[in-house]
Amino acid sequence: MLLNILQFVQHHIKLAVQAGDTVIDATAGNGHDTVFLAQCVTNSGKVLAFDIQSSALLNTRNKLNELGLSEQVSLIQAGHEHIQNFCHTGVSAIMFNLGYLPGADKNCTTQVTTTLAALEAGLNILLKDGLISVVLYPGHEQGLIEAQTIEKWTAQLPQQQYEVLQYRFTNRIHHAPYALLLHKRI
Ligand SMILES: C[S@@+](CC[C@H](N)C(=O)[O-])C[C@H]1O[C@@H](n2cnc3c(N)ncnc32)[C@H](O)[C@@H]1O
């Protein structure tokens, strides 16, 4: 009945993105979000997909090739905190799916300092009415610190400029993932 976290995020990203747009996957991982974004922008648009792990980018590349979506995607092996070295403006959506790559080294996880730097850079390059989605994983130690810090940071963004929405199942017994959406109003 209710949309799960990923469905909720994708629903809103779809509303913010049109064919031909430029968008960013800040954490390519196994490529699910990159594929989704590549389908949204079509081959007239552009997806920049970042990850620090070559294995993640390889998995993403393979998925894109299988689905014939490689044309519109640039895979970038760099930390998302360097987003502005690759893109200066004109982005309609950025997806962050934090934490570690399932099945890989759990120590290679997103870190609060670099995630915050990337979010700040992301807000700079976002178009008016652009959207940033962040999926947070408080179920592991680093993820909990990251989720709490990011939640606090987003809560102090000026409301004239940004709307911040949290989507969370509050009665789950374990620390379930949840989402934040940041909408740039002006
Ligand atoms: C939960 S996974 C992403 C899942 C992915 N969106 C998908 O659809 O499969 C998180 C990814 O973030 C990557 N990562 C960690 N620190 C990063 C950074 N500073 N910049 C970019 N990616 C980073 C990890 O290597 C990992 O692949």
Structure summarized in a few sentences:
This protein is of the alpha/beta class and 186 residues long. Helix content is 37%, strand content 25%. The model has no long low-confidence stretch (mean pLDDT 97).
Descriptive overview:
- The chain is α/β, with parallel strands linked by helices and 186 residues long.
- It has a single domain, classed as 3-Layer(aba) Sandwich (Rossmann fold), CATH 3.40.50.150.
- It is 37% helix and 25% strand.
- It contains 6 helices and 7 strands.
- The chain has helices at 5-16, 32-41, 54-67, 83-86, 112-125, 141-155; strands at residues 22-25, 46-51, 73-77, 91-97, 126-136, 162-167, 178-184.
- It has a 7-stranded mixed β-sheet, with helices on both faces.
- Strand 1 (22-25), helix 2 (32-41) and strand 2 form a beta-alpha-beta unit.
- The longest helix has 15 residues, at 141-155.
- The radius of gyration is 15 Å and the shape is globular.
- The protein starts with a helix and ends with a strand.
- The model has no long low-confidence stretch (mean pLDDT 97).
- Bound molecules: S-adenosylmethionine (SAM).
- S-adenosylmethionine binds next to helix 2 and strand 2.
Topology of helices and strands:
Layout lengths: L4 H12 L5 E4 L6 H10 L4 E6 L2 H14 L5 E5 L5 H4 L4 E7 L14 H14 E11 L4 H15 L6 E6 L10 E7 L2
Parallel strand pairs: 1-2, 1-4, 2-3, 4-5
Antiparallel strand pairs: 5-7, 6-7
The structure holds S-adenosylmethionine (SAM).
